[in-house]
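Q: Convert this sequence to structure tokens.
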Amino acid sequence: MALCVRCWKDDVRIMRFLHSEKTQMRIDTTSDSPSWTKVFDIGHELRQLGPLMEEKYPDLDWELFVCLRCVPKDLQRKTFCRYYASDNMFGLDIAMDEEDFVPVKKNTPGQRKLIGAAFFTFFAASIQKYEKKLPGLQPVSAQLTADVRQWCVENQWLDSAA
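A:
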């Protein structure tokens, strides 16, 4: 477990260095998953949200950094979020049980749904939790959450009824 925390901190340090200039709702991703999953490729799709959010929410001057982890259940890895105020970076570290991916091992759309459900549920809860801490978020948090949900539906990350 210490290795995972160290990797997260290293990823954040790298992203801080690479994006030290002012950001506008930039979205970056990384993953920690077995090679037989499509977590890396599917997670990378989230980057498409960045330009859409920059255009609609120019006052959101912070970066969203998402780490998607698909790890064995016995590791008991917890999902968490953190706002790095000095870097204007909001990190979501989302842990998913590897065992849930086994039945959809050869099914990329099935994996996308698992990732989508985990991502959106935690994203929405985190936005609500950090509504007053993230710069510019409070007046647009409900609409931002709705827009991200809509993107998830349009990109087959969520079912429209979810």
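Residues 1-6, 16-20 have pLDDT under 50 and may be disordered.
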